[in-house]
Amino acid sequence: MVQKILVSGGAGYIGSHTVLQLLLGGYEAVVIDNLDNSSVVAIDRVKELAGEHGHKLSFHKGDLRDKPALEKLFASEK
């Protein structure tokens, strides 16, 4: 069974590098980021760099301080 990992701030510099390594390591990555200091372009680039593993990345624009957004995220992801 493939493990799914939630990465907050996954579109930022450190987060995007972490997400790439998780994908290449065989994990699924779920990213939540409010994009204040990052860009969705970083997510697209990680998917591209991950090659055949890029489909294991899902992105949700949101803030960890937003309880309804987190509840929606957890309802949509296992």
From TrEMBL:
Catalyzed chemical reaction(s): UDP-alpha-D-glucose = UDP-alpha-D-galactose
Signal peptide per UniProt: none
Keyword Isomerase: yes
Cofactor dependence: NAD(+)
Pfam family membership, one: GDP_Man_Dehyd
CC terms in the record's Gene Ontology section: cytosol
Ranges of residues in domain NAD(P)-binding: 6-76
GO biological process per UniProt: monosaccharide metabolic process
This protein's UniProt keywords: Isomerase, NAD
InterPro entries: NAD(P)-bd_dom, NAD(P)-bd_dom_sf
An annotated Gene Ontology molecular function: UDP-glucose 4-epimerase activity
E.C. no: 5.1.3.2
SUPFAM superfamilies membership: NAD(P)-binding Rossmann-fold domains
Enzyme class, broadest EC rank: isomerase
Keyword Nucleotide-binding attached: no
Record pathway: Carbohydrate metabolism; galactose metabolism
PANTHER family listed in its UniProt record: UDP-GLUCOSE 4-EPIMERASE
Name of the protein in its database record: UDP-glucose 4-epimerase
Organism: Lithospermum erythrorhizon
Source species taxonomy: Eukaryota, Viridiplantae, Streptophyta, Embryophyta, Tracheophyta
